[in-house]
Design goal:
Layout lengths: L1 H27 L5 H20 L5 H24 L1
Helix pairs in contact: 1-3, 2-3
């Protein structure tokens, strides 16, 4: 039971970080050129899937969130270089 609570806490924290990163990127999106807009359009469904996966408290969903967060961080780094 304790492990599940810890996993839930990890997922909640990751979900919060994911949403913050997503929202920051959405705010900047109006500055993107066509290449970045296309890259964002391809990445955004992965973010949505990770949010949906977070509804299940499993290690797989935690991994999906972690992967999506890392992808958003990398995308954000790319946008800062190109804006």
């Amino acid at each position: 039971m304790e492990k599940k609570k810890e996993l839930q806490k990890q997922i909640d924290e990751s979900l919060s970080k994911l949403r913050t990163l997503r929202d920051e990127i959405r705010v900047q999106a109006h500055l993107f050129g066509m290449e970045l807009k296309q890259a964002w359009a391809a990445l955004e469904p992965r973010v949505l899937k990770a949010e949906e996966a977070a509804l299940e408290v499993t290690e797989v969903s935690a991994a999906a969130l972690g992967g999506a967060i890392q992808a958003l961080i990398e995308f954000q780094k790319t946008t800062k270089k190109k804006i």
